[in-house]
């Protein structure tokens, strides 16, 4: 990798203006204006709490229209909560959950799944954060072994924690392998919108890698897609929803004034806004990639598929760049960082960030 | 108790207009306009997620100003979550939590505490939903008994689930008994505002039955006090906060875009709005009591202290009244119901509800 | 109650010889000689661990012969473990377990069930430690209430912690009520042998209040019945055994060199030894009752049914008596104590203990 | 690797006599005669249950004599239970436990730790089943990260699941790294005796890699060392024992008639019998290695250190050999198996087993 220029210190001192919005995370963005309008509009009079309000009824209907009349949607607070609630309806006694070594449930949830489930989260190596059906097939050796936790749930993330996506066929192959072993499949869709945008940009495209592929329970991301806060757990396999209404409360995920979460989702689902916003976010990421791909000391991992880049940059440049426009480290041993776009990232933001990189490093 | 009038059926058919806001629950109300304005105002640009935003910093400062510089405040999603998070920082291995038989944590949280804590919730008889220090003192018999879970935490609710309040001296006596046994004290303050309004209506009054009385950890209610959604866990005993930041995430209570919860709290704390709104709610409850106390078939439990009434009414009248303006049953074996005012209940609401009761029953 | 004699101090100083075996507990007794012989005999050569040995196969066959070919027996270490393992196969997510306020699982297991199950243990008032079907029927009000843990398991103890027994009809009525609500029934039979002895003294009698009455899972007590250590969990409802083999290991109840537990059970089941020993123990208890019933200051609760007495004695006499021949306090507020016979209690023991009581108090 | 001889089928048909004791596992062996004698001798009269008996008092004294007066020993049922109890006293809320990918607690306990602890078990790659201090140092990156479970406990196994041992210096380095991060160290000593035999064969040698090296809590193995059943949890760091007596019961590990476990341990500790038996077992393993090292198609992993060999043998030979004298597969993808000696393995057993291997394969 190329190093920093010889006049590096001087360049730091003369950085161009930073972008208005940094590239730290898609959850640094606020709520889309239509979502905020929906919150305000829902603040009228009284509504029975815990989901017996008209907004929740409407959003449940919308999700049934989207996924099928035999599916069920449950609104919850946040991503970790959605995943924990989903898994808590799926694990049987002594089951384990298989996911990749990068999975949010394994790495980024402070052990919440283990605490709530009392179950083992087994991680599989996955350089691209994607599970392979062979890794599920290999679990057959544990079946019936009383000394080992039993294969119960496969959890995959779409799009993944490394910005990759599973194709519909890949998800289907995973579901086939899992179902052959009597396992059920959870999809962590905290960034389902970005994956949908990348894989066709339609609800039908989303169907192809969720319900049509055999996914049983889906965490449908709202917060990163443009909400102020809110996620949905979608039971594509209704049998697993039998205890869902109790489990949601039991894992602290039952919003009291639920209309405010429901109204947000209505605005997000309107006009496929969740897909449109993710398309924009993905496009901004590609734009940032294109504007920086020729800087020798910025080494990308390849063309971005969704809304994140994981480039390596000269180690000495990381701190000055973060001070100028904040982003997160990824792997300090490789001086790798993460740049992430959001639904509200603008072309100006991208161009100003790229200009700063070029100023400092090119 | 008096029965229904002889022309009951005809009266049902000719009910006057129902109040605009029913008396079902304080969480049926929306958010106060100032709170909603604060949410909208916080929706500007990017802010680092998970609490590293300026709104959260400000609200933490406000809580420190309120409770003392050595206290710590953690924002969370909801009431069950606040209680579970608080207790999870307080129980040691093999401890139990003592509360009354009416406690929200024991009765209304679907076993969330047992699931998250893996600990016993021991309930004590309490006709008025108030724990007595003697009931704590009696736990000494369990200390050192290896066959019994150990006295760890006392959890009391202020105001209680039955609309009563503990005086500052009563809380202090409970804390003294608990601390003598090496136990720590949690206060579920989902309706702390109503208790504060009832006990003096000042922050100093609130201090008298929380930090000054020896409470260790406080669930500071926001949702029922006028937020769209949000609670705070206040560590008055900072030593217990050592693992709080991790435990919050682990029990699914870490809001991602936390600025939207923080901004709400800032609006609620401004000008002691939380107390002012609760004073109004309590006053509306007293007004409803006064307007209905002379209806022979409406048998009150006494003058309300906070914002709830638990009257018995003729059994045949319950369904028609609920159809007219919804409220919840309380104890069907005694034809007892619950009427609850909220921060936004109006005099008109009260008078119309009372007029309907009088029309039907007087 | 009569007090102590005026020459009490002198009587203390001149107590007759204490019995060789005290009346503290049936788990103070050792193993029956036939059981010990079986342990020694099983210590031959190698045997595959974890239950793949011929002793375990044989004992499983014996239990199938006893309860039916579609039942399954699992050997475990101890009583708390047996109960926890049984319940862990029975609770669904968000379920609670109903038992009496005296239940071993609620009072004497240091919260082990809550820890292992993450589930609420709900206790019902029961002056005689016996649950009533009405208390189960009343749980219907919780069904479908998302804010309350759901009725899942009823756990009863036979014979009870207070030395009472359920008749076959009483157990059947409990099972009927539970099954009507979709609940399943666990019986804690740590002293199943004593109950069997009291209710007919045959395997058929035991059937009448277990499998024939509708019990789903049975903790079959071994330790108190004459083993050095060992219990069995019997799945009378085989569907509940689906995950049993994994759950046993998961709750630390899989004996490695299982032959040593199995061999003990073989000796205990031989010639219905478990019933014969319990008949003896029960008879010794009746004998002690008869020899002390006329001492005015020893106030019995009635004729004993199984192997325990809970008399009140003068408070001043408790400590001197315990120093002479140890037993446990029961309820110090009533100067109530517990005397318990075991499989090896002799007539001499009983007569010497009674003589001491008479010397001191009569 | 060499294949099977051309007359393989004929050789199968003419195998020499199988050894009396197979090489399947050290827990296939029974109890040492002195241990069995101790069980029988302890079966005299009554003894107060749950550890208030003279045998338990004596064994606790022996362990204090062995490890120091400020240490505490708790007797438990089995290895999984010992580990779970130890860890349950060591983890704080939101902590994780680090161990190797081969650790018994991670692989062979059916998720018991996750269930009892509600905590993450994090596994590190370890080709020889030995953790390296660098792998602990690297955990510093998680400290203070609210999204990640926190470094709490390091658990190492001595001797390891792959038959390797840590030197005293290696354990000390691990403890130093752990303590620097505020972590505590657990040692799973299910085969502590074999490690002790391999590292000097004295109590002082054992001290060098346990208490002197900084280990905080030790699972002291009894079952595999020659007991019928029983383990001990030794708190070398007494502060961690504060809740031990309650936690033991809570995780189902409190033996009722504890004298029978205590008496076994007394016999095992007498004359350092646990070390002498392990020396014999280790020696038998070396003998088996020596007698088979020159068979070309038996590919050893190196000279054994303790009592297990993990050779690769021709795949076609595994089943015929197991049918002749049973042992377990280890890694079928490499036709690797495990041969394990026990305290009672004889020279004849070894020679007959080696003769069979030679007959079939050489």
What is the strand arrangement across the widest sheet of chain A?
A: 1-7-6-5-4-2-3
The structural class of chain A is alpha/beta
Largest interface: A-B, 54 and 53 residues
Task: State the low-pLDDT regions of chain A, or none.
Answer: none
| Binned strand content of chain A | 5-15%
Discrete helix count of chain A: 15
Helical content class of chain A: 40-55%
What oligomeric assembly is this protein in?
homotetramer
The end-to-end span of chain A amounts to 13 Å
For the largest beta-sheet of chain A, the strand count, sense and barrel status come to: 7 strands, mixed
Which geometry of chain A do the CA atoms define? globular
Description:
The structure is a homotetramer of 362-residue chains. Chain A is α/β, with parallel strands linked by helices and 362 residues long. The first copy, chain A, has 15 helices and ten strands. In chain A, the strands form two sheets. A seven-stranded mixed beta sheet of chain A has the order 1-7-6-5-4-2-3, sandwiched between helices. Chain A has a three-stranded antiparallel beta sheet with strand order 8-10-9, with helices on one face. In chain A, α13 (273-292) runs parallel beside α15. The longest helix of chain A has 20 residues, at 273-292. The relative contact order of chain A is 0.19. The mean pLDDT of chain A is 97. The interface between A and C is medium-sized, with 19 and 19 residues.
Keywords:
40% helix, 10 strands, 362 residues, homotetramer, alpha/beta, three-stranded antiparallel sheet
